[in-house]
């Protein structure tokens, strides 16, 4: 009898795990569907809620059954039901990317009990049942906080890829929500601004933290939280300026560093803190450099890929596996930590400057020799 109860309990937990994972993916894909509307309408100054989505060719309103994320495009075989005009494959790609991110972030953040968060000691238990027991409110809030940053930066990258300027209201809303929520909920900033080389928690302190703090949300304004936000904002501005300096004061007509790219670092600094925004800037600059170098002789392929695409890619990795991608003072001596941070800061401006030069050279070669379609 005891064995039967254990099997039944185990099967119920398995159903809960699958349902929660599917719910995260579906919710993400629904938000991705709305994101497609934002990407298209907001840069044009159109209302993002009205009118109802319609075919851009025949202007027939899209029926509810055809507007299902991913499935709607697949069932229509990528064509309008009325006029058979092709529907861009980008729509289900955005929906799938957003759904996949929501699922992965839930797994590595909430389901794991915070195992992949830098600096923060993980929860003692993991799994979906934590949600039912009320042990994950802090991680759920952090999940929502990070997800909002991700969808704003993903929309910004697609808007820049389309040759449009990121709308101010999209950035301002993200800025205000990041500052507002971050100021009153300390749990949204697991990595504090100041970390000493001897600041790892003792085992007894860690146990008390798990018993009394983890899983709960403490609403209130704290000095340490405000310091974290201010330092994140300052370093976000510094990283953004260093990343975009080739076109910041002398805009180029053709550049992967599109207007308002630096504001993406400002937002990342607010949401993630100064340590992670420096890592984001360095890895994004390095990725951009590698891409430009590898495509030097390519005259047309991915020619319009903006730098924000690499920012989003690195940001996604940081949100999912930040514990293994950033260096903190207690990992090494403080002098070594300062040296590594300084090298990253200097490398950002050097790598983006070289990337800009390579990009302009590639554009010049393309104009001189004509496009190569072979």
UniProtKB/TrEMBL annotation:
Keyword Cytoplasm: no
Cited Pfam families: A24_N_bact
Key words of the record: Membrane, Transmembrane, Transmembrane helix
Transmembrane regions listed in the UniProt entry: 20-40, 139-158, 170-189, 229-249, 261-289, 301-322, 334-354
Family matches, as InterPro entries: Prepilin_pept_A24_N, Prepilin_peptidase/N-MTase
Domain Prepilin peptidase A24 N-terminal: 26-107
PANTHER family linked to this entry: PREPILIN LEADER PEPTIDASE_N-METHYLTRANSFERASE-RELATED, TYPE 4 PREPILIN-LIKE PROTEINS LEADER PEPTIDE-PROCESSING ENZYME
Protein name per the record: Leader peptidase PppA
Source organism: Gimesia maris
Source lineage: Bacteria, Pseudomonadati, Planctomycetota, Planctomycetia, Planctomycetales
């Amino acid at each position: 009898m005891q064995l039967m109860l254990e099997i039944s309990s185990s099967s119920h937990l398995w159903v809960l795990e699958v349902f929660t994972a599917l719910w995260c993916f579906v919710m993400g894909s629904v938000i991705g569907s709305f994101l497609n509307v934002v990407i298209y309408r907001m840069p044009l100054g159109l209302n993002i809620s009205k009118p109802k989505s319609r075919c851009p060719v025949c202007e027939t309103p899209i029926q509810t059954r055809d507007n299902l994320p991913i499935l709607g495009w697949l069932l229509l075989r990528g064509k309008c039901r009325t006029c058979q005009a092709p529907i861009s494959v980008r729509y289900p790609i955005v929906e799938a990317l957003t759904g996949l991110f929501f699922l992965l972030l839930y797994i590595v953040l909430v389901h794991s009990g915070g195992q992949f968060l830098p600096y923060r000691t993980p929860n003692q238990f993991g799994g979906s049942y934590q949600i039912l027991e009320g042990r994950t409110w802090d991680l759920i809030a952090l999940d929502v906080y990070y997800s909002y940053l991700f969808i704003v930066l993903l929309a910004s990258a697609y808007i820049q890829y389309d040759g449009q300027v990121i709308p101010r209201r999209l950035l301002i809303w993200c800025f205000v929500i990041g500052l507002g929520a971050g100021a009153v909920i300390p749990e949204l900033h697991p990595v504090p601004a100041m970390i000493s080389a001897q600041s790892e928690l003792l085992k007894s302190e860690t146990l008390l933290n798990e018993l009394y703090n983890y899983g709960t949300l403490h609403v209130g304004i704290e000095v340490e939280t405000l310091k974290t936000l201010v330092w994140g904002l300052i370093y976000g501005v510094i990283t953004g300026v260093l990343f975009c300096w080739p076109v910041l004061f002398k805009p180029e007509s053709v550049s992967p560093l599109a207007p308002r790219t630096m504001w993406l670092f400002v937002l990342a600094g607010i949401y993630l803190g100064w340590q992670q925004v420096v890592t984001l800037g360095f890895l994004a600059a390095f990725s951009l450099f590698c891409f430009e170098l590898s495509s030097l002789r390519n005259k047309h392929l991915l020619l319009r890929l903006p730098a924000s695409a690499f920012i989003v890619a690195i940001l996604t990795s940081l949100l999912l596996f930040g514990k293994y991608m950033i260096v903190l003072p207690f990992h090494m001596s403080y002098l070594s930590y300062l040296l590594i941070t300084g090298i990253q800061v200097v490398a950002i401006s050097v790598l983006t400057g070289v990337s800009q030069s390579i990009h302009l050279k590639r554009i010049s070669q393309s104009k001189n020799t004509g496009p190569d379609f072979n």
